[in-house]
Amino acid sequence: MNHPQLNRFPKYKKRGTPQSYTTDEQSVKVEGKHIKLPKIGWIRMFQELRFEGEMIRVTISRTAHRWFVSITIDTGTPNTPRDTRGLPVIGVDVGINSLATLDNGTHYENPRPLKRYERKLKREQRKLSRKVFLSQNWYKQKRKVERLHYRIACMRLDAHHKATTEIVKGASAIGIETLKVTHLLKNRTLSKALSDSALGGFLSKLKSKAATLGIHVEEAAEFFASSKTCSNCGEKKEELSLSDRQYQCVSCGFTEDRDVNAAINLKNLAVGQMES
Ligand SMILES: [Zn+2]
What we know:
By secondary structure, this protein is α+β, with helices and mostly antiparallel strands. It has 5 helices and 13 strands.
């Protein structure tokens, strides 16, 4: 396969910008755990290729002083929708306290890695600011900071991938909310917690994994009040503070964990949409 847009003269990049380049499949060879890169030669990889098929493009990038190679492969086999008979429709509520809550009561813990490493990160960044700019020690310290950022990102990604894979595997369809965080971002503590949770990234992973398996994802309209509505009788509360961890319906007396109640509403919405 030919990708002419890739066969152009390499762009010069500034120092300090993310370091990466993409090359076509013709200049790269992979054998087992080894990869041959142009100019550089054979290099050992951390793991073997997990897919068979035609290599389309190869991107080499550096993050936190580690080199990564990302290989796009056309496996030639179209994704066949999975048999989901017997699997339930699942409602997923995302949040800060629990990363995700399912209508059946399953909670996925939110690792909030930034919160955990915040003090250490601050300390290392302070150290960096005291080094002589671009000196050997400055670079050394910079790598330390980069590695910490990388570890934080990895922890977040890991939690997201584990939860989304598990949810998608057990569902025939999924109901989710549309994130509307703009009004929450004004609150500083909350906005920090929100960006640390990266809920948008979580939902997009969930959606893409569901799409791969051919599972329908129903996204609630932005005005859909998943938290304020009683999942038992449909009564809608005017006010619901973030600190109310329990949902209590004044109309029918229904009591449920706040997030579970929201997840049930999202499930019902998805079920209703599937039936109509
Ligand atoms: Zn009710």
